[in-house]
C-alpha cells in the first residue's frame, strides 16, 4: 500500500489540523472534536516546547498538553505498518471518544525537494518556510495531498494565520467549542407582560405565580421586567413560574460602615445588588460597557457583607488578569501589593468614592465602629495586624509615617479585610468565607475562569466583571472569553446569577465614548 493510501485510511471524514494557540487556549481540546481525526504537525510540538517554561497558565497549558500526548502514545502506537522503513509520516493513536490523533511530519519538507506542485507554490508564496507558521501551513497542504478523500481543516485562533490560510485556498475555522454565539451573548433583560391582576398581586405580595406559557423561555435566576401597560418593575425568576420582587426598593440604600450610603441609580443596578446580597448565590457574572457601575456596586456590596453587622464573609479578595494595554512597562519592583497596584487602580478609585465622606489623616482612638470591626475580624488577621503594630520603627521612619496622609480606606488593608491577589498564584488555593472580585474578566480564558471558580470553598462567593467587547488578550474575542463562557455554561443553575448592564452612569462623556468610539 502506498504512503498516500495509508494516511488516507487513517480518517475518511474530517481532519482538523490544530495550531499551537488552540492547544494553549484549551488543553482539553483533544477530546472535543467528536469522532474526527486531530492532526498535530510536529512544528506545533516544537512551539509548545518553547512555552513549557512560561509562567502562569501559558506554561501550565503547554506542560499539560505534553503530558497528555505522552500518556496517549505511551499506551502504544498505531502507525500503519506499511509506513515502517519508509520514514514515519504519522504517528497515530485512537482517542477514547472514537476519534484519532495523528502527529504529522511533512515528508516533503524532510526530503528538501518537494514532489508537490502545491507545496512548491507555497514556497514561492510564503518565501520563508523556516517560520513555524509557514511550516504548519505546509503540513496542512501535505495532508490535503496524501489524504485526498478527507476534508482537511486548519483550526487556529491566530487571525493572521487564518488570513494566510484562506488566501492560500485552505478551509480555516476558529476553535468553536467555547464560543458563545451572538444570540446567546445577550440582548438585555426580557420583559414579561402580565394582566392587571397579576401585576397588582406582584406589587402587593412581592411576587407572583405566572403560567408556564409566560415563563417557559426563562432560566432559573434570570432577571426580567414585569410589565403592565406603561408600568414596569424589575424582578427575578425563581423557577416553576414564580417571579419575585428584588431585595432592595427603588429608594433604599446600603450603608457601608465608615463609608457612604450607596443607592442603586437604575433598575439594572438594583438587579446587580439583588444578586450580590443573596447569600444563596455563589457566583455572579456581570457584563456591561464601561461606566455602568459594575465595579463600584460590587465592591460596595462586598464590603457591606464583610464589615457590616452581619459579617457574612471574612475578607474580600480583589484581582484582575495581568494584561497590558499598549507597550509593557516591564517588571515592576516592590511587594506583591506594589506590583499589583497599577493593575487594581480602578478598585482604589472606587474605594475613594465609597469612603469619600471621611478624611482620616492618622490613626486615632478607636470608635465604636472600630471596635465592631475588630470583633468581626478573624483572629488570624488580628494577630497579623498586631504583629505589624508591635514592630518598633526608627524615629525617622515614625516621623515619615506620621506625616504621610492615610487613605480613608486604609484600615481595610491594615486589618486584612481586603487583600490583593495575583491570578498567577491562585492555582492550588482553597478560599473559604471569601468574596473574590475579578475585574476585566473578559481577559480570562475559559480554562483560567474555571481555575478561579473552582478555588471557592464553602461560604465563598466569586464575582466576575467585565466588558466582552473590550478584550485585550491576543487569542480571545467577545464570544470566547472566560466571562461569557462561564455565564453561558452555568446559566440556569440554582447558585449562579448572570446580568448585563447597559445604562452608563459615570458621565455623559463616558457614556458617549462607550457607545460611539
Automatic annotation (TrEMBL):
Residue stretches making up the PIN domain: 14-163
Organism domain of life: Bacteria
InterPro entries hit by this protein: P-loop_NTPase, PhoH, PhoH2-like, PIN-like_dom_sf, PIN_dom
RNA-binding in keyword set: no
Region feature Disordered, mapped onto this chain: 384-403
The UniProt record lists the keyword Ion transport: no
SMART domains: PINc (SM00670)
A Pfam short name: PIN_4
Family annotation (CDD domains): PIN_VapC_PhoHL-ATPase
Family: In the N-terminal section; belongs to the PINc/VapC protein family.
Name listed for the protein in its UniProt record: PhoH family protein
Organism, scientific name: Thalassobacterium maritimum
Amino acid at each position: 500500500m502506498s504512503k498516500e493510501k495509508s494516511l488516507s485510511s487513517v480518517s475518511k471524514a474530517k481532519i482538523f489540523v490544530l495550531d499551537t494557540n488552540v492547544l494553549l487556549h484549551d488543553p482539553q481540546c483533544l477530546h472535543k472534536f467528536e469522532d474526527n481525526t486531530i492532526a498535530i504537525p510536529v512544528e506545533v510540538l516544537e512551539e509548545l516546547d518553547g512555552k513549557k517554561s512560561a509562567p502562569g497558565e501559558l506554561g501550565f497549558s503547554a506542560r499539560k498538553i505534553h503530558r497528555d500526548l505522552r500518556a496517549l502514545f505511551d499506551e502504544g502506537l498505531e502507525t500503519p505498518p506499511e509506513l515502517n522503513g519508509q520514514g514515519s509520516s504519522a504517528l497515530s493513536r485512537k482517542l477514547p471518544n472514537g476519534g484519532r490523533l495523528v502527529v504529522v511530519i511533512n515528508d516533503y519538507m524532510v526530503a528538501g525537494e518537494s514532489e508537490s506542485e502545491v507545496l512548491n507554490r507555497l514556497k514561492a508564496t510564503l518565501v520563508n518556510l523556516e517560520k513555524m507558521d509557514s511550516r504548519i501551513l505546509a503540513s496542512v497542504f501535505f495532508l490535503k495531498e496524501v489524504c485526498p478523500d478527507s476534508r482537511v481543516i486548519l483550526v487556529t485562533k491566530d487571525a493572521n494565520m487564518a488570513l494566510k490560510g484562506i488566501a492560500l485556498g485552505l478551509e480555516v475555522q476558529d476553535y468553536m467549542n467555547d464560543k458563545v454565539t451572538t444570540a446567546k451573548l445577550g440582548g438585555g433583560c426580557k420583559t414579561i407582560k402580565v394582566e392587571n391582576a397579576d401585576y397588582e398581586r406582584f406589587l402587593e405580595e412581592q411576587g407572583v405565580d405566572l403560567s408556564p406559557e409566560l415563563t417557559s423561555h426563562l432560566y432559573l435566576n434570570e432577571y426580567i421586567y414585569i410589565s403592565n401597560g406603561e408600568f414596569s418593575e424589575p424582578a427575578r425568576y425563581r423557577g416553576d413560574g414564580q417571579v419575585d420582587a428584588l431585595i432592595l426598593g427603588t429608594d433604599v440604600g446600603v450603608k457601608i460602615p465608615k463609608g457612604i450610603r450607596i443607592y442603586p441609580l437604575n433598575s439594572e443596578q438594583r438587579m446587580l445588588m439583588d444578586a450580590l446580597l443573596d447569600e444563596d448565590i455563589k457566583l455572579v457574572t456581570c457584563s456591561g460597557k464601561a461606566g455602568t457601575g459594575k465595579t463600584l456596586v460590587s465592591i460596595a456590596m462586598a464590603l457591606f457583607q464583610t464589615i457590616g453587622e452581619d459579617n457574612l464573609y471574612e475578607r474580600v479578595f480583589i484581582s484582575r488578569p495581568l494584561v497590558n494595554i499598549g507597550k509593557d512597562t516591564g517588571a515592576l519592583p516592590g511587594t506583591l501589593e506594589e506590583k499589583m497596584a497599577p493593575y487594581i487602580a480602578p478598585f482604589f478609585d472606587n474605594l475613594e468614592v465609597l469612603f469619600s465622606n471621611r478624611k482620616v489623616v492618622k490613626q486615632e482612638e478607636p470608635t465604636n465602629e472600630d471596635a465592631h470591626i475588630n470583633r468581626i475580624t478573624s483572629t488570624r488577621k488580628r494577630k497579623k495586624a498586631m504583629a505589624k503594630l508591635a514592630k518598633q520603627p526608627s524615629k525617622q521612619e515614625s516621623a515619615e509615617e506620621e506625616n504621610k496622609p492615610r487613605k480613608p480606606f486604609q484600615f481595610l488593608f491594615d486589618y486584612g479585610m481586603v487583600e490583593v491577589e495575583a491570578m498567577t498564584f491562585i492555582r492550588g488555593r482553597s478560599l473559604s468565607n471569601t468574596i473574590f472580585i475579578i475585574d476585566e474578566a473578559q481577559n480570562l480564558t475559559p480554562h483560567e475562569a474555571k481555575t478561579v471558580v473552582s478555588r471557592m470553598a464553602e461560604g465563598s462567593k466569586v464575582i466576575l466583571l467585565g466588558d466582552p467587547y473590550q478584550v485585550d488578550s491576543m487569542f480571545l474575542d467577545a464570544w470566547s472569553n472566560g466571562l461569557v463562557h462561564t455565564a453561558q455554561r452555568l446559566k440556569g443553575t440554582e447558585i449562579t446569577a448572570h446580568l448585563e448592564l447597559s445604562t452608563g452612569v459615570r458621565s455623559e462623556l463616558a457614556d458617549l465614548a462607550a457607545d460611539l468610539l
